[in-house]
Write a structure and sequence with these properties.
The protein is built from 3 helices and no strands. The protein has about 100 residues and is mainly alpha-helical. The N and C termini lie far apart (about 40 Å).
Length: about 100
């Protein structure tokens, strides 16, 4: 379960960057260093949806196999909720 825990934590960090990207998109760029701002944008817009989708598919496969998942419930639910936000903001809203 350690690889899943690592992937879940990485997805959570990328999801926070995704939320920061949404805030930056709707307000102004409040991050003063351009290098950090670019890293947040790459992690938020590119890495976060891919990583989050992989982690949630992994969760689903474990649930279907009825294998025990030894992760914090809040982490799994937060990743799922932000995946739904990513689907909305990346696929539904631009249309």
């Amino acid at each position: 379960m350690k690889p899943l825990l690592f992937a879940s934590r990485l997805a959570f960090i990328c999801n926070i960057c995704f939320l920061l990207c949404l805030i930056i998109q709707r307000t102004y760029n409040f991050i003063p260093q351009p290098d950090i701002s670019q890293m947040v944008v790459v992690l938020g817009w590119i890495v976060a949806p891919i990583q989050n989708l992989i982690v949630n598919i992994w969760y689903g496969a474990l649930l279907i196999a009825k294998a025990p998942v030894r992760l914090p419930l809040w982490l799994a639910l937060t990743n799922l909720a932000i995946l739904l936000l990513q689907i909305y903001f990346n696929l539904i809203q631009p249309a």
